[in-house]
Specification:
The complex is a heterodimer of chains A (499) and B (138). Chain A is α+β, with helices and mostly antiparallel strands and 499 residues long. Chain A is built from 17 helices and 17 strands. Classes of the chains: A alpha+beta (499), B alpha/beta (138).
């Protein structure tokens, strides 16, 4: 078994691959720890999910808070005031921005500073920019993401562990001065993103519609100090635009619900693409299959009803992650799915020409950041601090609700059912459950498993090619355990040959 | 300002000692210049709570520092040495501690950690309180 460090704050992800003649011919992705958070919710008060579920994850706690609040909004039937939705979204965007930048430059790009690439043309620059703790860009990303998260503290009124989203709106009302401060932070972040990451103004970036225009942007001499041209150069040298394709199925719950006075739906629309065909979006088509997961099979696989009962000795099972499926098919989720489903021309053209790939996933993260920064500023500007931010939903006694959002890593769903003022059912499907799922009931691979198949591996003792693919999904498994250990860290991505 | 930051989550039994100690300390009368924080599992997001503090005492569950349940005081150099192994691809608390000198904009705090080996039983709680009082009065 070969061990490669895993790239998340917490959690264990086990990757096994079978290599034949230097090429991956099969792959198995396992979550190695039972979580069981849903069971903790049963018997609690309806509002407890707002406090407990954000602590499931040390990275995307706002996303869990948002999904929990949306589920209770739906359950209670309350209409959230427009400005409350704007501020919920602004905080959600702040989480996206920090997550995407930290993923790209602290976890993904750091591999390019690996000594195995020391003979490559990009190595010295990659080392200078991305080396852990030392790289200029790595240090800068820590500084800048710290600043943008101040928006969460200002609007949420508490840091860490903001629980300001509640059914009916938000409970922390910012002053005009708070809103002005937030806009200042957003503009600072935007200037840094334009200069340091893209190498040009967002207004110019947003004119790019084709892969050719993107390549021309990266070739311009005045942009060479920025990150995107270097990432493009590295991608070409390592052929990252031709690796890690996967099933080509995509799912997005829709990113950022529109404020009530702007219409219905989402800023980035919900949808499903199966083999290039757009399918109608219906959350009832989501099922959690457990044929190869260490859970007891239920009479139904619907997250509205099915529970989470572990069975550690289940024959054929190899993962503590369930296999979410849409119309019984695996689907990748994340920024790439969001922007393809929303039909953004630049990304669609890139994928039409080069296909689904490691680079396409990372490009989508940069594009999402570029798209959301101006919207964040606009929503902050539109908020009227004297407006309504909360409507009392009344006591939540009975009913069901679903909260579906796009967390930074993709589709996140909370399903809740309340009877006699108590939670009787809570089910959560995380983005990594979609992406890093094991095989489904029919034996088809999960998205990450499929993306690994066909990858050439130069050095089986150091399969860095597989690391690029796995990290391009930005996996986050088994949140919330990160106890300090003396010696080797426990969180690992293990990549090895199937015995 | 001095800060005590309790690390961990009540949702995982093997990482609950920090937040349990937070609850315990919330009932204590701490010196006026000491702020008590529930840091959860926020890792790098805790940077604003370090920057500019005079000192930070972390309280977290640990494993492998003692041969039996107890509480270990890790001074700054020991803490940095222990977390140096954790920064390769992770951006959790270990990464934050290592990168602090490069990213603090106001001042880098003095650091130490009270590491709770095993669960927070009555004995460990008392040990932790004693060590904390000594550390605060040092």
């Amino acid at each position: 078994m070969i061990k490669v460090p895993f790239n998340r704050v917490e959690g264990d992800l086990d990757i096994r691959v079978e290599i034949r003649d230097g090429v991956v011919v099969d792959a198995w992705v396992s979550g190695t720890m039972f979580r069981g958070f849903e069971a903790m919710m049963k018997g609690r008060g309806p509002l407890d999910g707002l406090v407990i579920t954000p602590r499931i994850c040390g990275i995307c706690s706002t996303s869990h808070l948002h999904a929990a609040a949306l589920a209770l909004d739906q359950l209670s039937g309350v209409e959230v005031p427009a400005d409350a939705t704007r501020l919920r979204n602004v905080v959600q965007i702040a989480e996206h921005l920090q997550s995407d930048m930290r993923h790209l430059f602290l976890m993904f790009a750091v591999d390019f500073a690996d000594p195995c690439y020391q003979d490559r043309g990009f190595y010295s620059q990659a080392r200078q920019r991305y080396a852990p703790l030392q790289g200029e860009t790595a240090v800068d990303v820590v500084r800048q993401t710290r600043r943008i998260l101040e928006v969460v503290a200002i609007i949420g009124g508490q840091w860490p562990h903001s629980s300001f989203m509640v059914p009916g709106g938000i409970v922390s009302v910012p002053s005009r001065s708070d809103l002005r401060q937030c806009r200042q932070l957003v503009r600072q972040f935007r200037r840094w993103f334009e200069t340091r990451i893209l190498g040009g103004r967002l207004e110019d970036w947003q004119q790019l519609k084709t892969a050719g225009e993107l390549e021309a942007w990266c070739d311009e001499p005045q942009r060479q100090a920025a990150e995107l041209p270097l990432l493009m150069q590295i991608s070409k040298e390592l052929e990252l635009a031709a690796s890690g394709a996967g099933h080509a199925n995509f799912l997005s719950c829709g990113n950022l619900p529109l404020p009530a006075d702007e219409g219905v739906g989402h800023l980035l629309s919900a949808g499903v693409l199966l083999q290039g065909e757009v399918q109608s979006w219906d959350p009832l088509m989501i099922a959690e299959e457990v044929g190869y997961s260490r859970f007891i099979s239920e009479s139904t696989a619907s997250p509205q009803v099915a529970g989470t009962r572990p069975q550690h000795d289940k024959p054929e099972a190899y993962s503590w992650v369930k296999a979410p499926r849409y119309l019984h098919q695996p689907a990748e989720t994340g920024p790439l799915a969001e922007l393809l489903i929303a039909g953004r021309p630049l990304l669609c053209d890139w994928v039409d020409r080069s296909g689904i790939s490691v680079f396409a996933r990372e490009l989508a993260r940069l594009m999402r950041t570029a798209e959301l920064l101006p919207v964040m500023d606009r929503w902050l500007q539109e908020v009227d601090e004297t407006a309504e931010f909360y409507r009392n939903p009344g006591e939540i006694t009975d009913g069901s609700g679903i909260g579906l959002i796009q967390a930074s890593r993709g589709a996140l769903g909370h399903w809740v059912r309340v009877e006699e003022r108590r939670i009787v059912h809570y089910q959560i499907i995380t983005p990594t459950a979609w992406n890093a799922s094991p095989r489904g009931n029919a034996g088809e691979r999960g998205p990450l498993e499929q993306a690994l198949v066909g990858t050439p591996v130069a050095d089986e003792q150091h399969p860095i090619e597989l690391g690029h693919i796995v990290r391009s999904f930005d996996p986050c498994l088994v949140c919330a355990v990160h106890c300090f250990r003396n010696g080797e860290p426990r969180s690992r991505l293990r990549i090895g040959l199937r015995q | 300002m001095r800060r005590i930051i309790c690390i961990g989550t009540l949702l995982a039994a093997d990482d609950a000692a920090g937040p349990l100690m937070f609850r315990r300390l919330a009932r204590e009368a701490l010196p006026e210049d000491v702020e008590l924080i529930d840091g959860g599992t926020r890792g790098l997001d805790l940077l604003p709570l370090f920057d500019g503090a005079q000192s930070v005492i972390l309280i977290d569950q640990v494993e492998g520092f003692l041969s039996a349940p107890g509480v270990v005081l890790l001074q700054e150099d020991e803490l940095l040495q222990a977390t140096a192994k954790h920064f390769d691809h992770q951006v959790g608390l270990g990464y934050l501690l290592q990168i602090l000198p490069r990213v603090c904009e106001i001042a880098v705090p003095e650091l130490c950690m009270l590491g709770i080996e095993g669960c927070l039983n009555a004995e460990n709680e008392k040990l932790c309180l004693d060590l904390l009082r000594r550390q605060l009065s040092a």
